[in-house]
From TrEMBL:
Protein known as: Deaminase
Species annotation: Phytoactinopolyspora halotolerans
BP-aspect Gene Ontology terms: riboflavin biosynthetic process
Domain Bacterial bifunctional deaminase-reductase C-terminal positions: 3-177
UniProt xrefs under PANTHER family: 2,5-DIAMINO-6-RIBOSYLAMINO-4(3H)-PYRIMIDINONE 5'-PHOSPHATE REDUCTASE (PTHR38011:SF11), DIHYDROFOLATE REDUCTASE FAMILY PROTEIN (AFU_ORTHOLOGUE AFUA_8G06820) (PTHR38011)
GO MF terms held by the record: 5-amino-6-(5-phosphoribosylamino)uracil reductase activity
Pfam families: RibD_C (PF01872)
């Protein structure tokens, strides 16, 4: 049985996007990037909402061949492109090889099916998709960066009480903190 893991970089006040909809403040340094690379190696498939998919897909398709990309970025690009990706969207019409499109209305059924059939981790990205799949999420993994943005798109769904247990923590030289929480259910 697979494990659904919701993981993203977040601001210290809990946002994955600032009020302008940008995520530049979450850009990882090499140490944090290496941690994400290690976790991505354990990923059986990525599950993305449309917006995060669009933010991830185009840039990572080109990173491996860019001269200005760091080795840790190139490593992530190779791992990312070798991992199956599933995007849940009602507006995207076509996706490239290595990506599968599922309509948003089928997200819960498809994620439940994948969880039953896939061994390993299903890495979930995107707060809207995470909110729709909240009862299927086994772990929440946050890398909290030392900046507040004062609003934007929150990592956790608004108005949902979740019972969590800290399973792992790690502090980085930059002051960022990685937190992994097991989902014990709704409160």
């Amino acid at each position: 049985m697979g494990k659904v893991v919701y993981s993203m970089n977040v601001s210290a006040d809990g946002y994955i996007e600032d009020p302008d909809g940008t995520i530049g403040f979450t850009a990882p340094d090499d140490e944090i990037h290496q941690m994400w690379n290690e976790q991505t190696r354990q990923t059986s498939a990525f599950l993305f909402g449309r917006r995060l998919y669009e933010m991830m897909e185009e840039p990572w398709r080109t990173v491996a061949s860019r001269d200005d990309a760091s080795e840790v970025e190139k490593e992530f690009a190779r791992i990312y492109l070798d991992t199956p990706r599933i995007v849940f969207s009602d507006t995207i019409e076509a996706v490239p090889d290595g990506v599968r499109l599922v309509r948003s209305g089928d997200a819960v059924a498809e994620a439940a099916r994948l969880k039953e059939q896939v061994d390993g981790e299903l890495d979930l990205g995107g707060p809207g998709l995470a909110a729709s799949l909240i009862d299927l999420i086994d772990e929440f993994r946050l890398c909290v960066v030392p900046i507040t943005v004062g609003g934007g798109k929150p990592f956790f769904p608004v108005g949902k009480k979740l019972n969590l247990r800290l399973a792992e923590q790690r502090v980085f030289a930059s002051g960022a903190v990685y937190l992994c929480y097991e989902h014990l259910g709704r409160g």
